[in-house]
Amino acid sequence: MEKREVILYCDLHGHSRKENIFMYGCGGSDKCNKALYLQQRIFPLMMSKNCPDKFSFSACKFNVQRSKEGTGRVVMWKMGIRNSFTMEATFCGSTLGDKRGTHFNTKDLESMGYHFCDSLLDYCDPDRTKYYQCLKELEEMQKHINLEKVLDDSDTSLKEITVESSSRGSDSSESNESQSYILKLTSQIKAKKKHLRTKKERNSTLARHKNAREEREVCGRGYLIPRHKESNSDVKDAKPNVSDDRIFDYFRRPFPNQDLE
């Protein structure tokens, strides 16, 4: 490294869980130096363009975890090699292009070696057209990521959107349709809002329920009392009309075996 510049360092590994072929890089949190931050992503992006059915740029990661500080790519990166990667070839197959749903064979892995060297030639080409195209594309990606982050962090209410759209004063049909749609949404929200009753209304409702419950209880008692009397009278009438003297005379009778002695 003291005598000549090392443009790129790359380990070749196999991955057992993630699909496709991808790279692990370094310096993912170095956003203060924008040029260096984007430069470390140019070569993986070139790989994805030269081999779109096997290599996935979206699966590449550039963060350095504490447990990975002893790996070759991190050690070389700390020594000054900015393009320091680990290329992972999957055991699970591809989800890209014509290779979707299939496993990689020996020819596929050999072709990745060809595309790796081809991308390295593109990266070192004196004609920097491809280099700057990838750099511009990465800048657009970064803007898109920042915009998504801003949108996720912002919390704009529907009322604010309505005020903003109405204050533009545009005469186009598109803006009118959007405004009418927003107004329709606000009217639906207002219609779904629960109506809160006053204390007087709540008390009158409770009184009606209480009176209805008392009326049901009174009607129930008035029905049960006559039925109870009627049932008692039935039991009384069913009792045999026999005097007590006749009952005692019946038990005083001598039994048949008393005369045998």
TrEMBL record:
Domain named Peptidase M14: residues: 1-124
UniProt GO BP: proteolysis
Cofactor: Zn(2+)
Gene3D superfamilies in the record: Zn peptidases
Active site: 88
UniProt GO molecular function: metallocarboxypeptidase activity; zinc ion binding
Region of interest called Disordered, as start-end residue ranges on this chain: 193-219
Domain of life: Eukaryota
Family according to the record: Belongs to the peptidase M14 family.
Protein name: ATP/GTP binding protein like 3
Species annotation: Myotis myotis
